[in-house]
Amino acid sequence: MLKAEDYLVGKTAWCPGCGNHSIREALAEALSELQIRPHNVLICSGIGQAAKIPHYIKANGFNGLHGRALPPALGARVANKNLKVIVESGDGDSYGEGGNHLIHNIRRNPDIAHLVHNNQVYGLTKGQASPTSEQGMKTGVQVNGVVVPSLNPLALALVLGAGFVARCFSGEKEHLKETMIAAIKFEGYALVDILQPCPSFNKVNTYGWYKKRVYFPEIEDLQDWSAAMEVSRQWGERIPLGIFYNNSSPTFESTLAALEGEPLAWRPFDPLSVAHVQDEFL
Amino acid sequence: MEVNILVGGAAGQGMETVMNLLGKALVREGYGLIYTKDYMSRVRGGHNFSRLRVASAKPWTNIKSIDVLVALNEETYTRHCENLAPPGKVIFDPGLFSLPDDEDRGVPVELQKLAKEAGGKVMSNTVAVGALLVLIGLRSETVEGLLKEAFADKEGVAEKNITALKSGMDAASRYCSACFSLPAKDEGDKKLFIDGNQVLGMAALASGCRFLSAYPMTPSTGVMNYLAAKMKDYPLVVEQAEDEIAAVNMVLGASYAGLRSLTCTSGGGFSLMTEGLSLSGMIEVPLVIIIAMRPGPATGLPTRTEQGDLEYAIHGGHGEFPRAVLAASSHEDAFYRLNKAFELADRYQIPVLFLSDQNFADTHRSVEPFNFSRLKYNRFLAEEGLYEKPYKRYRFTENGISPRALPGQFADQVVLVDSDEHDQNGNIIEGAEARKLMIDKRMRKLAALAEEMDEPDLYGDPHPEILLISWGSTYGVMRETVDALSDAGLKIAMLHFSDIWPLPQKRLKSLLPRAKISCCVENNATGQLASIIRREAGLLIDRSILKYDGRPFLAHEIVAEVEKSVES
Ligand SMILES: Cc1ncc(C[n+]2csc(CCOP(=O)(O)OP(=O)(O)O)c2C)c(N)n1
Ligand SMILES: [Mg+2]
Predict the structure, then answer these.
(1) Distance CA B375, CA B372 (A)
(2) How confident is the model at residue B11 (pLDDT cuts 50, 70, 90)?
């Protein structure tokens, strides 16, 4: 039996009061409830405060480039479909620098749980606006306040055909853990946007700000796309949390004949066995 | 004795169909040949042409002179008639245009009309092949066999094509039959008829590469096409990435998790990949990138050739890390050398850049079948019982190579890689001493890596007074140059690099100082290899012979330049 503590390693470099702490704990609890042994999990991340997570969870880790957490995760799924692949990164990383990969991996629908630590700011680089920063938020770069409207990642994911879309709050850890479990179990691409306070750089969306607004709406039909879209678009005085949509479709992996059977990475190979491939040129 | 054929027309007129059919038939019949493409970056219109040279000695390059010109449009005739040999012939469709009155070399064949009669206009290329067969005196059975193979699953199509072929033969035979004679056949085993991209795609497959992620970019796309077509028969995944950044990062993820993986691109795409290249250097995950060069900067000349990205391959990517740079010199060599690229990447856990170019990628040649038993497949992975526990991805070792385990390979051992500087575990660090130790560990790999580099190929006089230096796809034209100048009595040789970085220096250091004249021949504007040799080996080369108009060298051009150097 692996306990949640068994998944916690390293000494975090996060500020006191940062939402990352409870996101990390929730993940450890989720993994322990799922009883997935660390060598069978792969966490891919980019760069940022959130993206340091592979150093703090006992699992395989690919802490790659800023914005590029999804592509190696996809590659790893091709190589070894027995790995539980989790992509975990910040809002800047996932929605800004990595936006193109977000779009196209939602379309591909690989079996990946994408957990976004959304503090609505660039934390590591000390407080510039991220794609999800509120209009009007002033920063050292957006000196007159953010002018462009913020990105709604859940609505975007739904439009692109994501099969699993959820919003959580780091201050609701039990719900977060349960949602993580559901996302990891979901066969296909699952997006969990996790609201998270950044006490150092986001003075607008504080713990109290979120706490006052979040609520759990009753969602009757998790396969009702229009209803999911509507709840995803709620933001302001009240911010809904929960799994908004859960409707699986064939995964990227299931379309690849090569992945049938043993993981590709473990299959032996002998060049002589393919020597006849040159016959077509004779 | 040889026959030189040029087929030209607008993009979309199907020159390739003619050459593929004729080329393959000739190779099956036992002739040695080369077939090159000169095409524009457009889908319709413009002027595209292909050259095919059949010669008794293995031809390495094409020449300017044309024996049979197949002019699918009038422009082809006007552009190329000056190079048509006096006893040459022009196959053209009198239904489309007519030749000048004083042109008596014409062989009018109503390509479109005959094709329509046989069953469809699309077969006008088959009619042209029929006419060509008559002119060069090649029997039609082999082509008929190829048509049957090509259309095996389409009822009646092969028969219609054979009718078209025969009508082309009949039409041409009224004007001239076997007016050119083919050279002696190349004795020995059956040959392959294959282009450079296909050679590389096949080498990747046969090296155990199971994942290719790439974004289409001429002239590299042929590698992708080759491998994609193999997905139905082999456990192989080809994924078209959303961009080259995704491509290289997907490949790194697959490689990290245990697959031999590849990406291919051209200069512009490689620019987008350089951050990922640097990541490979940092996380020590094997990476192979084929860069099929085309002239830059920026979009440059998309369908033309250049050797302009050598320095970029050596220096691309931020930070300092060991890498290898190899190049495709000939079809014969590149097959095994790409296998070497995979082996080096796995053994040293480094990125390996494999340079090809349009001249290599798009050129078909007749080559001996490859010997697959020469290919290696070693993964150099940690083995149970032989690695120290707990597993540390970046454990310090004497040669700098840490035992490599895959995620999931060993129960309860995890594999952590990090693009930040890290400790032996893979955990992010910032300490000065730890940083230095890790740089030293990575750089230690260079010593053994340098020993793996093949010395440049020496061809010609073993004690040359004139030494030519070259690399990559110019191998064939350099050989023809050396042959021509040796025949003219010069003591000349070429030193041709296929493994370029780390630069092998022994042969250079023994031969270059003793040569009276040295020239570096490169398909670029700045003489990049010459600079690298000056910097790395401290040797100066007398002069550079450079060509950077987007076209490959022709042997006579280099011969003329070398002769100039000899005179002065
Ligand atoms: C290519 C590249 N550009 C920029 C950076 C600098 N950078 C590092 S993290 C980051 C933003 C992080 O924001 P987010 O992803 O929201 O993570 P957080 O720190 O807020 O958790 C930036 C701009 C980088 N490391 N690499
Ligand atoms: Mg952030």
Answers:
(1) 5
(2) confident
Instruction: Give the whole-angstrom CA distance, residue B91 versus residue B127.
Output: 11
A97: which DSSP letter?
Answer: I
Q: Do A58 and B414 touch (CB under 8 A)?
A: yes
3-state helix, strand, coil in chain B (%, to 5): 40, 20, 40
pLDDT tens digits, residue range B518-557?
A: 999 999 999 999 999 999 999 999 999 999 999 999 999 9
**DSSP, residue by residue, B354-416:** EEEEHHHHT-EEEEPPP-GGG------B--TTTS-SS--TT---TTSPPPB--TTSSTT---E
Residue A280 to residues A113, B204, B335, Cα–Cα distance (Å): 42, 16, 16
- Let me know if domain B455-567 sits in CATH 3.40.50.920: yes
DSSP SS3 for B306? coil
Q: What are phi and psi of B520, to 5 degrees?
A: -100, 125
Low-confidence ranges of chain A (pLDDT < 50): none
Q: What are phi and psi of B289, to 5 degrees?
A: -120, 125
Taking the centre of ligand 1 as the mean of its atom positions, its distance from the CA of residue A53, in whole angstroms, is: 14
Q: Give the atom of ligand 1 at the shortest distance from the alpha carbon of A201.
A: 20
Domain limits of chain B? 2-173, 193-374, 381-452, 455-567
The arithmetic mean of pLDDT across residues B191-215, rounded, is 98
Report whether A157 contacts A128 (CB < 8 A).
no
List pLDDT tens digits, range A76-87: 999 999 999 999
Report d(CA B285, CA B176) in Å as an integer.
62
Task: Determine the pLDDT at residue A27.
Answer: 98
Q: How far is CA A15 from the centre of its chain?
A: 21
Across the interface, of A63, A104, A271, the residue whose CB is closest to B206 is A271
pLDDT digits (tens, 9 = 90+) for B225-282: 999 999 999 999 999 999 999 999 999 999 999 999 999 999 999 999 999 999 999 9
Instruction: Assign domain B193-374 to a CATH class.
Output: alpha beta
A271 → closest Cβ in B28, B261, B377: B377
Residue type, B326: L
Backbone angles phi, psi at B21, to 5 degrees: -70, -50
Residue B207: which of A273, A264, A279 has the closest Cα?
A273
Task: Answer yes or no: is pLDDT of B201 > 90.
Answer: yes
- Looking at the CA of residue A47, tell me the nearest atom of ligand 1: 9
- Give the torsion through C-alpha atoms of B414, B416, B422, B423, to 10 deg: 10
B276 lies within 8 A of chain A by CB: yes
In A91-120, which positions are buried (b, 16+ CB within 10 angstroms) versus exposed (e)? bbbbbbbbebbbbbbbebbbbbbbbbbbbb
Domains defined along chain A, listed by start = 4-257 (3.40.50.970)
Minimal CA separation from A265 to chain B, in Å: 5
Task: Give chain B's mean pLDDT.
Answer: 96
| pLDDT over 80 at B176, yes or no | yes
Q: How many CB atoms lie within 10 A of CB A13?
A: 13
Q: Are B468 and B561 in contact (CB under 8 A)?
A: no
pTM over the 0.95 mark: yes
**pLDDT over threshold 80, residue B406:** yes
Do B193-374 and B455-567 share a fold? yes
CA-CA distance, B163 to B144, in Å (whole number)? 10
Task: Assess if CATH 1.25.60.10 describes domain B2-173.
Answer: no
Q: What is the DSSP letter of A95?
A: I
Q: Can you give the pLDDT at residue B13? A: 86
